[in-house]
Amino acid sequence: MTDAATRQFVRETRRLMVAALDTLTRSLAAADRATAEARGDEADRSVENEAVEWTSSLRARKTEDAAALRRAVARIDAGEYFTCEDCGGDIPRRRLEVIRTATTCVGCQAKRERAAADVPRDYGIRPERRITSRPLEDQ
Ligand SMILES: [Zn+2]
């Protein structure tokens, strides 16, 4: 874990994440200013409603991205970047090269995704019952 190439990778990753976080923070602040200005214009409200909603979901995603970056930088600073937060095992460098904000090993990530799949996503709107391959007359 402490070879020169790995240290270089961690240094470079941290630098990139801090820069990305800075950019995200600025664009979130700019989006907030724009939203505040849009709110002031009552006449355009209905027209802009849709755009504002879209912006808030985009904002939520950007806020999540910023949180993930902040967490990854904190994990680097704490010396935990290569440690899976679920099982305590190693996260291979190759995984972190692909997903720099990963906090779990591949196995634990798969477990999380299976668990998340059981929770209804789209605000409780469940997908239609799975279509079976049986012909209609058999149902
Ligand atoms: Zn794990």
Please characterize this protein's 3D structure.
- The protein contains four helices and no strands.
- The protein is mainly alpha-helical and 139 residues long.
- It has a single domain, classed as DksA, coiled-coil domain (Four Helix Bundle (Hemerythrin (Met), subunit A)), CATH 1.20.120.910.
- Helix 1 packs antiparallel against helix 2.
- The structure holds zinc ion.
- Residues 84, 86-87, 89, 104-105, 107-108 line the site of zinc ion.
- Zinc ion (ZN) is lined by residues 84, 86-87, 89, 104-105, 107-108.
Report a brief summary of the structure.
The chain has 139 residues and is mainly alpha-helical. Helix content is 63%, strand content 0%. The protein has four helices and no strands.
CATH architecture: Up-down Bundle
Enter the CATH topology name. Answer: Four Helix Bundle (Hemerythrin (Met), subunit A)
Count of discrete domains: 1
Bound molecules: zinc ion
Percent in helix: 55-70%
* Topology order in helix (H) and strand (E) letters: HHHH
Mean pLDDT: 83
Radius of gyration: 21 Å
Summarize this structure as a short list of keywords or feature phrases:
0% strand, flat, 4 helices, binds zinc ion, mainly alpha, 139 residues
Q: In terms of topology, how is this protein built?
A:
Layout: H1 4-40, H2 45-77, H3 93-98, H4 106-117
Helix pairs in contact: 1-2
The structure holds zinc ion.
Zinc ion is lined by residues 84, 86-87, 89, 104-105, 107-108.
